[in-house]
# Entry
Amino acid sequence: MPMHDPIDRYPTRVLHTPGLLDRPDPVIWGSDADPEILGFGSRGYLHRAGAISPDTAARCLAEIDRIEHDPDLRDDERTVREETGEAVRSVFDIMNLSTIVADAVEESGAAHLARRILGSEVYVHQSRLNHKPGFVGGAFYWHSDFETWHAEDGMPAPRAVSASISLTANETYNGPLMIVPGSQRVFVQCRGATPPDHHHESLVTTTPRIGTPSESAVAELVAAHGIDVITGPAGAMTVFDSNVLHASSGNISPLERANIFVVFNSVENRLREPFAADAPRPRHLAAR
# Structure
């Protein structure tokens, strides 16, 4: 195993029974007292309507259609397809693949919000398109993003936030984001050692074997905090803490769901060697 800071405050991928650990780090790292930011600290997320215009959302959808049908990207490792077919599940490094998408992220104000929450300058740790076509869009099982980024990328602390920008309407029936508000204050350990090149499996399957919290842990946190289902029109944006527990169900409706997903990490929280994996993931998953 690689050497790194001897003090791991977020041990995971354990061989014993995993537990729920109190988070030693803050959720709000700056001193911003705006009610919207304070609400983020309490719930672990904030939601804004109209973060990008309808025209911008439409241009991004057209761009995504172009990228998904680009023969040069068909077998590119940045393109991830559904486990059960040819439908595109995710396209990583989307901000570098498309200036239109990068401009939409700038328009959304997500980076400015990230700086206010994290109390520092930020950089893009990861960007991707998440696409759930009608009838075939697969689920994303319950997880904390930080657990993966800590274990497999070497992110020291949960000083990162994600922005999900809707390009289509998010309805209760087409696989919207579900968040357990308040769960950002607890680190959920996961059981089992990380296999080599685990991302080849974890990015495709709807129920990963490793890096997934136990059903009892999810049930305990939901019993304490409930579940918020995030719906809204195209152009809305949800910014959420890297450690908050979240998921989305599969889409068996005929209406697609598509969103841009961008992760901002503090420049004071740069990646080290992975804490629970033998080698770092590729740069399109974790910029260094």
Q: What stands out?
A: The chain has one domain: 31-251+264-269. The domain at 31-251+264-269 is CATH 2.60.120.620 (Jelly Rolls). The chain has a mean pLDDT of 92.
